[in-house]
Amino acid sequence: MRPLTCRWLTTWSIAAVIVQMVGVSVFMLGFFPVKPTLSGVSGPESFHPPDHVIHNLTTPPPHLKSLYQELSEIPPSFDRLILMVIDGLPAEFVLGKDGQPPSKALMDAMPYTQSLLKNGMAIGYHAKAAPPTVTMPRLKAMVSGAIGGFLDVAFNFNTQSLLDDNLLGQFFSIGWKMVMLGDETWLKLFPGLFTRHDGVSSFYVKDTVQVDQNVSRHLGYELNRDDWDLLILHYLGLDHVGHIGGRNSVLMAPKLMEMDEVLKMIHLNNIVPQHDVKRETLLVVVSDHGMTDNGNHGGSSFEETDSLALFIGPTKYASDYASATQNTAYQVDIAPTLALLFGVPIPKNNVGVLITEIFTSLTDDQQLRALELNSWQLFRLLEAQLPGLFCRSFDSDGFSDDQRSGICKCGGAIDEMFCCLYINAKLLHSSWKFKTVPRFMDKDDHSSPIAAYHDFLKAASEWLSHRATDKPVYLLAYGVAAMISSCVILFTMIFFLCKEVDLIEKKLLSDKNRTQGWHLHEIFALGVTLFVVISMGSSSMVEEEQYIWHFLTSTMYLLLFRNIIQSFPAETVQSSVSIIKGQNKKGYFQMCSLFVLLVSGRILRGWHQGGVNWTNLPDISKRLEQAGSDHIKLIHFGTGLLLVSLSLFGISLLKSKRNFILVVQLAFSIPGLLVLQHIMKYQDSTSTASSEATVLVQSIYVILGIMTVGILTALPWLMPVWISENCSSWTVYFPMSVTIDNQNKYLLVGLRDCVYLIGWAYLYFWCLLQMLLQQPINSMPILLLLVQILASMLSCSIGGTHHKQWVEVAAIYYLGMAGHFGLGNSNTLATIDVAGAFIGLSSHSTLLSGILMFIITYASPMLALLSMVIYISLKDPSSFVFPQNADYWHILKMMIGCPCLVPLCLNSVLLTAYTIVLLLMRNHLFVWSVFSPKYLYVCATTVCVYVGVLIVAVTGFYTCLVFGIRRKRQVDPFSNELD
């Protein structure tokens, strides 16, 4: 069989990657489409039954306001609204949990708020937010009543104006003047609507003080003015405190006290004195989402979805503390509630249900009218979603015996059920209104029509909220087909490449050092991917995937350890004299390397209790955090010092000019010392970013960037190549049985040394970057990951038992995946470290913070991929130039073929398999809370693999090209090159 050429291998591999990217894009476009909405905005027609046709006319704001009041038949309960958003505040901080009040520390932190709840002057709700629990989609839900698409989590970092019908648009249409202070997300969602505004960036999470002072400094001025109808105050400090130190941060109680003082100021100035003024003001305190114990959010756990909705007005809402705090609602219920309170139409795409307790001051007629308007709006939305919904033709034969007890049993098809519930509520309301009530219903009792309306509203709201968006089947099919095609192409390439490598190894290696046929560790290397694919079909396995990777990776290296032991002759194992005499020394060195790897893996496994269900269990990181920040800082500094020392030692092993090595070590020391300086002076999780620290970090970024690019581009030209005339010294690089011409020896010796040094630069600089960006508690896991990868490569390169190259590369790739979870990552969006993404940034930049966030999250997989550069340099180069007439392209193919193709193949299998799993689970209960976030992680991992493989390929191609040019210029390959 004719060998696969480098050009064809490259062309087909690039084609496979392009096909895969197209397939993923097409699939995501079909599976995560923009949620369809009703066009236009609600107008006067919303105050008429769904079958009533009315033509909207252009009406000036003052007349439109009067028209809405006339048509709604409900007088506005308030004249002005203050919407105070406390970003990230869990409802349980204010209302307690499971019927129990908040802890004494939390109650003491917000005494005025608690007094309002105890007096019944405020009523609070655990307003459940829908995932993803990030700011932008949650603000949309509160003002429009609609649940956005899942990919709003991505749009959260680049907010666009909200075009759907919403409360602010309705208020603006009736002439309201609006003022906004706080999160600039409001300005991006509603450009041009605010009379006055002062926005701040929501993403610079290191700032916990100025970001709130910027809001409060205007508060006294705005509260004393009478020229606004809506005042929005969006405080970000509490969310930032959570990101920095978690729920139990020492800054949390002072921040809650600060928010309580703001609430007290608003209440005393604008709510209490209202009895003597004409304009009444409603204060609504809400939070967009909650937070986990470590302060993050984005997922679907109770801690993240437990948002607050607190209504404070001039009248009593509750009789006691329990009735004021033990209430539940949905975040989307805020929109219809506020719309009906202020006499504007409910937003067209609202799926929420009004909160009835807020309307107790209304008469029975007005309460039923509010429920009727909410029902009409949801019914219109149902008609748009269910084209076959024709309730006018639905036959209703009065009331059944079951209905006499107030229970309406409706079944059958979904459209029939909704028609039944809607008509029952409509008939009961009409009967009560005209006093033609059945004999079982008292004329003064309006609970039956209210219950009937609630049955319909609850059923319609739940169905509209949970209904999976229609997915274009052809797009999903095209996407999956493209990914499968990409898999087939990549596996075909790796099959032919591995077959060629295997044939070369048969001729170069003795049977003693080479494994024959398929062995257990090779079968298991393939089985790892298969096992992970099978586990993806279980939501529990997806949530706790870290256990799978830790177990499979440890087992993989235990099998390699076993394989080395089995390679020893029995008499050698039984005798220690052979070790002293040097027999099988390489095999024992391999064993020691794998032992270090396994011990490091076990420590890494116990560092974080990741996942979802067991994060409360004790682990090493929690114990260190309990020990105090001084201990963590000491470990952080010690780890950085060990990292610098290990790097300098690794460079010293290079067989090159001593002066050249000293210069390289000196250059490598500079960024290392700067990072250590930053750790000692500025690494404090509770302090805000100072300008000096920002300048230092920016300097480190620049130095690392310049040195990385400089080493890659200049080193292949400047690297001295030292080849002794004593041929016996060449055995360091080549087996004596291999005949290689002098020019190829020059090329390969230079390549080996240069790629080794470039690889060390990649690993060292990447780890230094992680020392800056990762949480201080993660400094030791970064070092352990580096030790694991170096130990794995060392065991593959020192001789002894030889494993197939694809097995070695796959094992390193698995280390990277296990390390990803060892750093505390999971498959929920809540574990993304947002705080680290703003280290070194003097102002908010979506692009830069996104890149830093990606670097933090994928530290381990990228480290494993970058290590492939060193792996190339540590492999026996004799196979690169076999046969003897091998050209430049053959050397390049043999050098970077497996290190690039194996990660692409493994990731392609996982990506394609999980795409199919997501397709099969599209109607699963946890499709949006478990499977969809996991798919975003899989796609991001794919990007990580693309970037890592590209770096390895470019490094190999450029270095080989430069040394090919230098080889042609070399007159005497035996001369000692000093440049």
Describe this entry's structure for a reader.
The protein is mainly alpha-helical and 979 residues long. Helix content is 58%, strand content 5%. Strands 4-3-5-1-6-7-2-8 form an 8-stranded mixed beta sheet. Helix 17 (364-385) runs parallel beside helix 19 (447-466) and helix 23 (545-567) runs antiparallel to helix 33 (805-822). The model is unreliable at 394-407, 724-739 and 971-979 (pLDDT under 50).
What can be said about this structure in brief?
Helices cover 58% and strands 5% of the residues.
* Cα shape: elongated
Low-confidence stretches: 394-407, 724-739, 971-979
Return the average pLDDT rounded to an integer.
83
The N- and C-terminal alpha carbons lie at a distance of 43 Å
Helix tally equals: 37
Helical fraction equals 55-70%
| Assembly state | single chain
Residue share in β-strands: 5-15%
Radius of gyration: 33 Å
Backbone structural class: mainly alpha
Number of strands: 8
Quick one: biggest sheet? 8 strands, mixed
In the sheet with the most strands, the strands line up as 4-3-5-1-6-7-2-8
